[in-house]
Specification:
By secondary structure, this protein is an alpha/beta fold. It has 9 helices and 5 strands, in the order βαβαβαβαβααααα. The chain folds into 2 domains: 129 residues, Rossmann fold; 60 residues, Arc Repressor Mutant, subunit A, CATH 1.10.10.10. A 5-stranded parallel beta sheet has the order 2-1-3-4-5, with helices on both faces. Helix 2 packs parallel to helix 3, helix 6 crosses helix 8 and helix 7 packs across helix 8. The mean pLDDT is 89.
Length: 205
């Protein structure tokens, strides 16, 4: 798996370079952008193939401010956590941005260790969300691959019915039920009806 990327979006070259050096020195892969426009073009080109990344976004930039860049990134359904980098006068704006879905903000000048820690936390959260999304996608795909008869057996299984009852309800033999049951478990990646019910509960939850 490729290493997580940190996207540094700041129109101040000194801050950009300093942050890139900091993250490189800690083993992260950093990409720098001198404004919201080029960064958004990069994000649009990825469309859905997001991978894990965190965005460090300066709040005061021209011509595209950090807030406008953030809104446009959200409009792309980009899952990357955004940390705003703010000057003292912009703390109120940054708090509002966090309420609007940003991950966090840090006031300049910030402590290197604190910044790296916050980014590590954001990456861990992004990774957890991404794994949950992948599992949901996999389950939906598995469900859609079941035959109509397998769906009927599945519905009976998660109600806690035994093979013999299922056979009676559906007018098939217990052996056929066992066959369908084995297929369902294999397709859904589970080893018991209880596990199956848990996974389907998560899907609808």
């Amino acid at each position: 798996m490729h290493r997580a990327a940190i996207h540094i979006v700041d129109d101040n070259p000194d801050i950009r370079d300093g942050l890139a050096w900091l993250f490189d020195s800690r083993g992260y892969q950093a990409a720098t952008w001198d404004g919201g426009g080029p960064f958004l073009d990069h994000a649009k080109a990825l469309q859905t193939d997001w991978g894990h990344a965190v965005v460090l976004l300066d709040i005061r930039m021209a011509p595209l401010s950090g807030l406008v860049t953030f809104e446009q990134l959200k409009a792309l359904d980009c899952p990357w956590p955004v940390l705003f980098l703010t000057g003292h006068g912009d703390v109120g704006t940054a708090v509002a941005a966090v309420k609007n879905g940003a991950w966090d903000f840090l006031e300049k000048p910030f402590q290197d260790n604190e910044l790296v820690d916050r980014v590590a936390q954001a990456l861990a959260a992004a990774s957890a969300v991404s794994h949950a999304d992948e599992e949901t996608r996999r389950l939906k795909l598995a469900l859609s691959s079941l035959s109509p008869r397998e769906r009927q057996v599945l519905d009976e299984l998660i109600r806690g019915h035994y093979n013999k009852n299922i056979a009676d309800h559906l007018g098939i033999t217990p052996r056929t039920v066992e066959f369908h049951r084995a297929n369902i478990f294999e397709k859904m990646g589970v080893s018991s009806a209880v596990e199956l019910a848990h996974k389907l509960g998560r899907l609808s939850g």
